[in-house]
UniProtKB/TrEMBL annotation:
SUPFAM superfamilies: PLP-dependent transferases. Signal peptide: none annotated. Residues 3-310 form the Aminotransferase class I/classII large domain. It comes from the Bacteria. This is PLP-dependent aminotransferase family protein. GO terms for molecular function: transaminase activity. It holds the Pfam family Aminotran_1_2.
Length: 318
């Protein structure tokens, strides 16, 4: 109960008004998705999502018999022509979106797009899963308010987690939604693992109450330095062979390789040299042009050596 109360206060800062009974503590964002797929969806359900998407890289939805339907993106986020028309054609059960610092493209959905998306989905009675695990990791200014902040109808299930900001090993996240939905998911959570570790919950509660703003200031500034460093390296080695976005938060740069080479072969060559790549087809099976670069974990030296070598491999393959 303590953690849920603390999360209510924390979410107020994002414009989300909720109560402890509308929150379920889960073992990370991934478990939130697992519980939703078991508890709210049926075999064969169609899920709309951004294309490319993190959802494609995890197997919970596919293994639960879901059909994933990707919608393209532009620099403002998911680019749907008409949710109403798409809904009539495909009859989706819900739409999954990562509005802030999207995995894998780093895209930040604009305020305008958020408003449109929420309005259109509500008009079409299409529930939304909003995955906001990167929302706190902005560099210059906070992202626009989450969709959940403007959700008066209870049609958004909001997912948060401390995995990207505090510690992935604690396995603590949360789902915010209408009470009946939360109660159903809580039943399944109970049957799955009897509840998340109370030591982890205790630590996250303490962190959110006492230190997260200070810690986040540090994490943001460190991440921004790493982003700047990676961009510098890309400018040095990739300016003739790739294009990329400059993310305003989160972990990822979505690198588009210009020459037509096989990213699969590039992956194989790189792994032989001890460099693990995340090619675009993990996030969209038809993508053969992109690499997802992450500046969050590797050291600056590894980033430099790895990227320099990748640029050489691409040039050799041209
Ligand atoms: C968009 C997104 N959602 C959820 C997760 C899973 O987070 P957690 O470690 O909290 O399960 C990830 C992890 O990469 C992610 O990128």
């Amino acid at each position: 109960m303590h953690l849920r109360e603390t999360i209510c206060d924390y979410l107020k800062g994002k414009g989300i008004e909720t109560s402890p009974s509308s929150i379920l503590i889960v073992s990370g964002g991934l478990q939130a998705l697992q519980l939703i797929s078991i508890g709210l969806l049926q075999r064969g359900s169609v899920i709309f999502h951004e294309s490319p998407s993190y959802l494609n890289s995890i197997h919970v939805f596919q293994s639960a018999g879901m059909n994933l339907f990707g919608i393209p993106m532009d620099e403002e986020g998911i680019k749907y022509a008409s949710i109403g028309r798409l809904k009539r054609q495909h009859n989706p059960a819900l739409i999954y979106t990562i509005p802030s610092f999207h995995n894998p493209t780093g895209t930040l959905m604009s305020e305008r797009r958020r408003k449109q998306l929420l309005e259109d989905c509500q008009k079409a009675s299409l529930p939304i899963i909003e995955d906001d695990v990167y929302g706190d990791l902005w560099f210059e200014q906070p992202p626009p308010k989450p969709l959940k902040a403007n959700d008066k109808q209870g049609s958004v299930l909001y997912i948060g987690s401390v995995s990207k900001t505090f510690s992935p090993g604690l396995r603590i996240g949360w789902i915010v939604g209408p009470e009946p939905v939360i109660n159903r998911l809580a039943d399944i959570k109970m049957q799955t693992d009897y509840g998340s570790s109370s030591i982890s919950q205790f630590l996250v509660n303490k962190w959110l109450k006492n230190g997260y703003e200070e810690d986040l200031t540090l994490v943001r500034s460190e991440l921004k330095c790493r982003r700047d460093y990676m961009i510098e390296i890309l400018n040095t080695y990739f300016s003739n062979i790739a294009t990329w976005n400059i993310p305003s938060g989160g972990f990822y740069i979505w690198l588009k390789i210009t020459p037509s080479i096989s990213t699969r072969k590039l992956f194989e060559k790189a792994i032989q040299e001890g460099i693990l790549l995340n090619p675009g087809n993990i996030y969209d099976k038809d993508d053969h042009r992109h690499l997802r670069l992450s500046y969050s974990y590797a050291t600056l030296d590894q980033i430099k050596k790895g990227l320099k070598r990748i640029s050489e491999l691409i040039i050799e393959m041209m």
